[in-house]
Every structure is written in C-alpha cells, then in structure tokens.
Fold this sequence. Notes:
Layout: H1 15-49, H2 53-81, H3 83-102, H4 107-135, H5 139-170, H6 175-178, H7 180-194, H8 208-231, H9 235-257, H10 271-287, H11 291-300, H12 306-333, H13 336-359, H14 364-391, H15 398-435, H16 442-448, H17 452-461, H18 464-499, H19 519-527
Helix pairs in contact: 1-2, 1-4, 1-5, 1-7, 2-3, 2-4, 2-8, 2-15, 3-4, 3-7, 4-5, 4-15, 5-12, 8-9, 8-15, 10-14, 10-15, 10-18, 11-18, 12-14, 13-14, 13-18, 14-15, 15-18, 16-17, 17-18
Amino acid sequence: MSTNDPLTRTSQPTWREWTALAVLALPLFMMATDFTAIFLATPAITADLTPSTTQLLWVVHIGELIAAGFVITMGWLTGRIGPRLLLLLALALYGIASALAAFASNAETLLVARVLIGLAAAAASPAGIALLRSLFSSARHFGIGFAVVMGAFSVGGALGPPLAGLLLEYFWWGSVFLVNIPVAAVAVIAGLWLFPRATNRTTDRIDMTSVVISIGAVMLVVYGLQNFADRGITIPYALAVIAGLALGWWFIRRQRRIENPLLDLDLFSFRVLRILAIVFVTSQVAFMTADFVLVQYLQIVAGMSTASLGLLLAIPAVAAIIATALTPALSRKLTPAIVMTAGMGVSVIGTIVLLAAIVVAPATSLFAAGMTIIALGISPPLVVGAQLMLTSVSERQAGPVAAIQDIAASLGATAGIVVLGSLAMSVFTRSLRITAPDGLDASALDTAVESPGAAIAVAESIDGTVGQELLRSAQDALTWGTVAAYVAALLVGLATMVILRGLRGVELPDDGTDEPMSETAQDDEGSA
Length: 528
C-alpha cells in the first residue's frame, strides 16, 4: 500500500481541516433537504405554474431518478478528475440550478432545474465522501468526519419538511430553492481554498456506452419500482423494471470485457464489500421503509392530526442525530460486527415495540418509543458500514465504492416500499373484502379496496350503519396490513443480523497499526 493514502498517516487535523469539513457538510445537508422539501412545495407550485399531472410527477421525482442514474458515472469521475474538482463543479451547478428553479416561470423550466439539481446531487455524494479520504490523515479523525457527513444527510432529510414549511409560511414557493444559492456560493469559494487536491487518480478513458447503459438501467428500475409503490403493478412499469434489469445484465457483461470499466467489478471480489452492499439493501427494507405504512395507520386508525404526526416524527429524527454523533466513539471501542449487529438488534426491538403498540395498546407514547428505538439502533450500523466500505479500499477507489453504497441504499429503499407496501395493501384488500358490511354496494366495495384513503372516502359518503361499519372494517384492515408490513420488516431485520456474521474479525483502520486494504489485498482475498 502506498504511503500517500491518507489513512496510513497519523497527523493531527488543524482548524483548516475542520473548517473544510463544515464547508463540505453544509451543502450536503441542503441537498438532502431538497428531496423531502419538494413535497411540501408541490401545492404552491401547482397553483402558480399549473403543470399537467405528468409534469408535476416528473418535477417531484426526476431529481431522485437522475441522482440514482448518474451516481455510478460520478463515482468513476471522482477517481478520474479528483473529488475536489468534481465537488466544486457539483456545488456550482447546484447553485445555478437552484436559482433557475426559484425563478422558474413555467413547469418546463422547473423540470430542467430539477434535472440539474439531481446531477449535482449525483456528483456531490461520492465526491464529498471521497474527499474525506484526502481531508483527514488518521482513521480516528476520518471516522469523526464521516459521521458528520452522514449526519448531514440524515439531518437534512429529517429537517427538509419543517424547513420548507417555515419558508412557505412567509415566502413564495421559490424560497425553498433560493436558500440554496448562498450556501452553494460560500461552499465553492471556501472550497477553492480549503479542499485538498487528490494525489491518486485513474488515467483510464471513460466508456460512454457503459455510461448510457448504467444510467438507463438504474433509472428504469427505480422508476418502475417507484410507480409500483404509487400506482400498483401494471404492465408498463413492469416492462420498465424488466428493461432496466436487462440493461443491468448487459452493463455487467460489458464491464467484464472492456479494459477501462466504468465500475470495477473486481471490487466485489472483496467479501466485506459484498456483505455490506447486501446489508445496505436489507437494512433499508427492514427499518427505513415500513414507516410510510405506519404514517397511514396513525392518520386513519389512530386519528392523529398532521401537526401531531409531524411532532411525533421529529422525535426519532433527533434520536438519529444523537446516535450518529455517538457512532465514532462506539466504533473506537467495538468491532464493526458488534456495532452493526447490536444496532440491528436494537432496531429489531424497536420493531417489536411498534408491533405491540399496533396490536395490543395503540398509545402515542409506545409509537414514539418504538420509532425512537429503531432510529437509535439503525444509525450506527449505517455509518460504520459505509465507513468500513470506504476504508477497505484505496483513495482512488473511494468514489466508485461510495457510488455502490448509494445505489444499494436507493434500491433498498425503493424495493422496500414496493415489497412492504404491496404486502400491506394486499392484506388490507383481502381483509376489507372479507369484513365489509353486507349492505355495501359491490361497486362501492371495489372502490374502497383500492386504498385506505379511498375506503375512508367511501365510508364517509354513506350514511347510517353501513358507513360506520365500513369505516371500522377499513381501519381494522389497515391495522392488519400494517402488522403484516412490520412482521416482514422484523424477519428481514433478523436475516440482516445473520448476514452480519460474515464481518466477524473485520476491523476499521486503527491509527498507526492497521491500513486500508489495497487493491492487491482485495484480489488475494477474492481469489482465496
């Protein structure tokens, strides 16, 4: 291993490195808020720009699709031009795109701006994480910096809705994007001075065919799965997923044949990376996506208001921030396998508490406790797992590995919503058909079983006993659907704990002792 890899040196960071970390974390925080804030701004955007239904759907989702589709390419560019340059370009593009979105006069302009914001996010994620390898020269300080960056993403996603709500209360919808401009400007100016230059880059030329194939594969799969969750499994969206998987198969075959692959598949010969990629998928399915079913339950069955629900969801968000902040201390005292397995175990306990709250005692305090326990448990494993992925490879490979992590987490979240959501709705539909009142018209029943919201609307439109019985049946059906989703999540969580047994004996780099695994070591392990 070359001595110019940052984690093989042990110098103390100065104010310059800590300031650079703050400059790095702030725009990443703002980018994370964008993906959740856009939902709150949608009604105001609709009223002002009057987009068509299709245009509105693309405005909401295109940024996420672009970010997912381009992340592999951006991971390669991180190694080709260096994380510093790529990050500065991404931040500049982010500021320009935010200005374009803030002052968009029509839906088409806003859509273009959202595409550019997605491109900026796709570049900033792997470039920002890879930059940490150049920024901090000791494993301990890298762990602290990594926790800060991961925390910026988590906090941004959690605070996006309340921040957008505050802005929309006093300003027009463009203010949601306008606040990004000074952040991007400060980050670019300060980054030119503070961000270190990469010392280890690849000289390979990019294979444009692989770029096109990878973008198409990821975007088609994510697009199809998202629409499965929103509109159910239909032929057009199923064909999109199938086409994406076919392109993915073609992409993998091409990477094995060409001399300058966009994604080095030899990385997957490293057992730790294979295990962690799987864990990022399954952990998202188990502990990060069942909440969208719970939100419907709390509103429809528990009768919780939107304001009360917002306060309830803020509690686990704060818990996630605290757990992320404590992770570096835990990772210095415990092995990655222990931290991750214990964290998953804590999240399993939280899932059991939620199940008890749904089935036995639907009290707000129990829901708050269950969601908080899950947030406290899942945050350290995600931080340590991502850190372990990055420190197990050389500095040049950090960008592609960060891209792998992003893709795994994105596919896990999307697949989780589809699988758990479909399971919940299937149980809801079957239960409601069985327990619906006898006096209910067949056409009304067909409408009611489409979704919990539709069932409530039908029940409220029917006077008398039949309407009341349908409302109770819909609430009971949604209860069992929610239970089914969390039982499935519990099983996936337990399976994830079993998978993590493969990390026994694996250590994070320790200052002055252990080094990140080099490419040679990876090849040796893969061929063993």
